[in-house]
Design a protein that fits this description.
heterodimer; A: nine-stranded mixed β-sheet; 19% strand; B: alpha/beta; eight-stranded mixed β-sheet; 11 strands; EC 6.3.5.7 (chain B); glutaminyl-tRNA synthase (glutamine-hydrolyzing) activity (chain B); ATP-binding (chain B); Amidase_dom (chain B); ligase (chain B)
């Protein structure tokens, strides 16, 4: 198969004639200790085919048993997505032949999903074009349980796909890993913001799933995989167009780009008076385009029928309520609440979220630090240190308690900011708590006003011109003198106090 | 006691003899192995004999007994296992070329239970390929022959197990019954076969034919022996989601308890009891009813109007599930592989392997099942069949309000000749007309021999059916009738089988 470059039209142009409609299918790998239907481990990265047994290898006679924890996770996901939870539902067999599927059928829920009819409100941020933030309600069609297939690697051949490969190897460690597939209803009405909605939805879903602690949530490891269905309707029409399904779009940025690309490609096809071909598409991260996969018709016949080796799943209402009580606060709402409590600006909060520092700041504030100080340390100094070392900010060996203690030393007047950074050097180096480091390194502001006054006098005498300017009303010029005073004091002074003394000596109102 | 005599004992007598120290398990097991060696070439009941393994278990039991260890009731009593159950380290073929060289890395739960019961496993018995058939003629490894007449079929799919038990090549054997594969072979070989309540015995490690119908059960020469094996096999298994999590019904107590049936209501199912049966079959059936009356039972006629649709529903549900269950045999990870010329794709290797390794009957049912599940046909076929299934279950519920057990002949005829029905699948399928309803509804059923047909001198089976989870009723009534028949007929039916002529 050769990848031909399809025609596209400019994005803005496409949106003048067509309304995009999206349907997003997100596969979530659950982080259960064992597989969906057997007791095999699910650890990522193990030697190929070492986490297998008769059940997940599809040996003759093997039978599945449903993983109770996976069912609980599915119900919790359903509840968090405001879904209804089935009182009685079954698994079905989806029959098709493929070498990475041990039984040649996938055990999956079909027309009786565990959760259905939900919604998720998604905050779409302001974009680069200056369009404002808004909230989009994504309607959830269903969330159902299924098992993953093995992982095929096709060796040789041009495309890395099974056709044309010299040989293929299959790792069945992944076969039987529990998956939850979350399917949206058709998303209409986002207009030119549709690609952003897609991205914001997947991001919100990822945050929600992480907050539920049901998945490792690492898109780059395939814990969360998105298939994006896109079709276009001529503006004013109510008839859905032919859709394409772009498979396995595995980063937030790619979700947005893939949807955007498909819109421009569909528009070109429709503009030419041609028909969009119903098919799966492969997303190419490097070139930013999609290429044709296999034809997909609604008539694909998987010969679904209820899985006779399993009994129905029938969660009692008490069980559902017990699980509902375990739901965490919705991450978006939680962020909004914390932003208010901490008094952060939208921009500050976005930095905190992007840095993944919401939890650690929350803990630091709880330990007694001011929100501003907590934010400054975790997204500033410590983020830079972590970045330089290539580790996570939480792996520096610095705890929320350390930050709270250090903040106390600063606000209590023992340390200034520059001394606090030196103390942090010691904490990161493992020299102890901030107090221990400050003691050991002899870091302490000089509390003797006489010494400071002497330094101030000396600096003013040496900088008569600057002193005149300050006297003349240019108070901001004091900054230059403060620097010199601090130098005189070898940094062991409180800069605010130095400023105060400079102004007082010159008889100027601060 | 001579070696030959030992094989003639019932399993109960063997257990008692072992416990009393009259003979050892090694002697008992060796007696069976000797007889297998002599007669199996004529019968083809065993596909594989594990003399070494069986004798090792026997020696182990003997040593334990000598050391005064507390042993399970059947410890040291040998057993044969249908080749549908996975046995770790022993080839398990399901009667198919596809699995000719397949050696499972694990034991079926029932095999573990046999091992826990310390029963020497003599070997694996022949069967129709993937349990599809009523004659064992569909085995890829040649037909099994009926000990009563080597030109006749021993029933199927479990003809190997029934022939082994009837010919004293094993006192007990494992069967699997999807539409009658335990009961019909029992009927045509003069032995006892029980299909327990669906879910009573674990299916884990049993090569699936149709998951919602398959049930493992005991094959024996007497009702009490069947009960002893039933008790070993039954019980909850967390590896099988459909396994019943409840105490095993008291089958041994029932099989060895009172012979008085006063007050028992016996329902003759009009739709499967009276028409289309061979003369000798009908006569034996009516005689058995009279014996039940003599034992104090009240015989009533009941109607199960939807049973007439059972065959049609069964031949949609069973092939549908089978088409999916057998999809895994694609020669990718295991199984017989055929590689076409050139550089074939994986798909072409799968197709060629399945074409080469599956027999005609298996292909017939895969095609039928695939069709019945296809989009556009599902509702008319599979969906409709499931509705019939519900109606049949309703018929049973209603019938069991009028009767404590239901009865019918097990099969329409005595054993037919090898080759007679091989070209007529419908005629072959009709053998199971009386046994299929129990599988569709999940209720337990038993076949016991009720006599010998005058016209051909071949054994006739009498079927008992009970409500789900009431398996002990089968044993109570079956044991009472068995004893009464033995009294009236001057011995058990299985004792009337002619001695087998050893083929040169």
């Amino acid at each position: 198969m050769t990848a031909t470059t399809d025609r596209t039209v400019p994005y803005a142009d496409a949106l003048t004639r067509y309304e995009p409609v999206m349907g997003l299918e997100v596969h979530v790998e659950l982080s259960t200790a064992t597989k969906m239907f057997c007791g095999c481990a699910t650890e990522f990265g193990a030697e190929p085919n070492t986490q297998t047994c008769p059940v997940c290898l599809g040996l003759p006679g093997a039978l599945p048993v449903v993983n109770r924890t996976a069912v609980e996770s599915a119900i919790r996901i359903g509840l968090a997505l405001n879904c209804r939870i089935a009182e009685w539902c079954r698994f079905a067999r989806k029959n098709y032949f493929y070498p990475d599927m041990p039984k040649n059928f996938q055990t999956s829920q079909y027309d009786e999903p565990i959760a259905f009819d939900g919604w998720l409100d998604v905050e779409v941020p302001a974009n680069e074009a200056g369009e404002p933030p808004f909230t989009f309600r994504v309607e959830i069609e269903r969330a159902h349980m299924e098992e993953d297939t093995g992982k095929s690697t096709h060796v040789g051949g041009a495309t890395g796909r099974i056709h044309g490969a010299d040989y293929s190897v299959v790792d069945y460690n992944r076969a039987g890993i529990p998956l939850i597939e979350i399917v949206t209803k058709p998303l209409v009405g986002a207009g030119d913001r549709a690609p952003e909605v897609a991205r914001a939805y997947v991001a919100a879903l990822r945050d929600l799933l992480r907050a539920l602690d049901v998945t490792h949530g690492r898109m780059e490891q395939g814990n969360i995989r998105c298939d994006a269905n896109v079709s276009l309707m001529p503006i004013g029409s109510e008839v859905l167009g032919t859709r394409t399904e772009t498979k396995n779009v595995n980063s937030l940025r790619s979700v947005e780009r893939a949807v955007r690309y498909e819109i421009t490609r569909h528009a070109a096809v429709l503009d030419a008076g041609e028909k969009v071909f119903q098919e799966t598409r492969h997303w190419h991260e490097d070139t930013g385009i999609t290429t044709a996969g296999r034809p997909k018709s609604d008539a694909d016949d998987y010969r679904y029928f209820p899985e006779p080796d399993l009994v129905p799943v029938a969660p009692s209402r008490e069980e559902v309520e017990r699980l509902r009580a375990t739901l965490p606060e919705n991450p978006a709402e939680r962020r909004k609440r914390l932003q208010g409590e901490w008094g952060f600006s939208d921009l500050e909060m976005r930095d905190v979220v992007n840095a993944g520092a919401v939890e650690v700041i929350e803990e630091t504030v709880a330990a007694g630090a001011s929100p501003a100080a907590a934010r400054k340390w975790w997204t500033g100094d410590l983020a830079r240190r972590a970045n330089a070392d290539g580790v996570a900010v939480t792996d520096l060996g610095v705890t929320p308690a350390h930050i709270a203690e250090l903040d106390g030393l600063v606000t209590g007047g023992r340390l200034n900011d520059s001394m606090a950074r030196q103390v942090m050097d010691g904490v990161v180096a493992g020299e102890g708590t901030p107090t221990q480091v400050a003691d050991a390194r002899g870091l302490e502001l000089v509390q003797d006003d006489g010494a400071l006054q002497a330094a101030v006098d000396k600096v003013i005498a040496a900088n008569a011109d600057v002193a005149e300017k300050i006297k003349g009303g240019k108070v901001q010029a004091a900054g230059a003198l403060i620097g010199q005073v601090m130098k005189e004091m070898r940094g062991q002074a409180d800069a605010a106090k130095a400023r105060e003394l400079i102004l007082a000596t010159l008889g100027v109102e601060g | 006691m001579t070696a030959r005599d030992l094989t003639r004992l019932t399993a109960l007598q063997m257990a008692d003899g072992l416990a009393a120290g009259e003979f050892t398990s090694v002697e008992l097991t060796q007696a069976h192995l000797d007889r297998i060696e002599r007669l199996n070439p004529s019968l083809n009941a065993y596909l594989l004999v594990d003399a070494e393994g069986a004798l090792a278990t026997a020696a182990n039991v003997d040593a334990a007994r000598a050391a005064g260890e507390d042993l399970p009731r059947l410890a040291g009593v040998p057993v044969a296992v249908k080749d549908i159950a996975c046995t770790r380290g022993l080839p398990t073929t399901a009667g198919s070329r596809m699995l000719e060289h397949f050696v499972p890395p694990y034991d079926a739960t029932i095999v573990t239970r046999l091992k826990d019961a310390r029963m020497p496993i003599l070997g694996k018995t022949n069967m129709d390929e993937f349990a599809m058939g009523s004659s064992t003629e569909h085995s890829a490894f040649g037909p099994t022959r009926n000990p009563w007449d080597l030109e006749r079929i021993p029933g199927g799919s479990g003809g190997g197990s029934s022939a082994a038990v009837a010919a004293y090549l094993a006192p007990l054997a494992i069967g699997s019954d999807t539409g009658g594969s335990i009961r019909q072979p029992a009927a045509v070989t003069g032995s006892v076969g029980v299909k327990p309540t669906y879910g009573a015995v674990s299916r884990y490690g049993i090569i699936a034919l149709a998951s919602s119908l398959d049930q493992i059960g005991p094959c024996a020469r007497t009702v009490a022996d069947a009960a002893l094996l039933h008790e070993v096999l039954a019980g909850h298994d967390p590896m099988d989601s459909t396994s019943i999590d409840a105490p095993v019904p008291p089958v041994v107590a029932a099989a060895t308890g009172t012979r008085d049936l006063t007050g028992l209501r016996v329902g003759v199912v009009k739709e499967i009891a009276r028409e289309g049966y061979q003369e000798g079959v009908s006569r034996c059936f009516e005689e058995a009813l009279q014996h039940l009356r003599d034992l104090g039972a009240q015989v009533v006629e009941v109607s199960c109007p939807h049973f007439v649709h059972a065959m049609a529903a069964y031949y949609l549900i069973q092939p549908s599930e089978a088409s999916s269950n057998l999809a895994r045999y694609d020669a990718m990870r295991y199984g017989s592989r055929t590689t076409p010329e050139g550089s074939p794709s994986a798909e072409q290797v799968m197709a060629a392997s399945r074409d080469a390794a599956f027999g005609d009957e298996v292909k017939r049912r895969i095609i039928l099942g695939t069709y019945a599940l296809s989009s556009g046909y599902y509702d008319a076929y599979y969906g409709q069949a499931q509705k019939v299934r519900t109606l049949i279950a309703g018929d049973f519920t209603a019938a069991f309000e009028q009767a404590d057990v239901l009865v019918s002949p097990t099969t329409p005829t005595t054993a037919f000749r090898i080759g007679d029905k091989l070209d007529d699948p419908m005629a072959m399928y009709l053998n199971d007309i009386a046994t299929i309803p129990a599988n569709l509804a999940g209720v337990p059923g038993m076949s016991i021999p009720s006599g010998v047909a005058d016209e051909d001198g071949l054994p006739v089976g009498f079927q008992l059916l009970a409500p789900a989870m009431e398996d002990q009723r089968l044993y109570a009534v079956g044991a009472a009738l068995e004893a009464r028949l033995a009294e009236a007929q001057g011995g058990y039916v299985f004792e009337k089988a002619p001695e087998i002529e050893v083929q040169a």
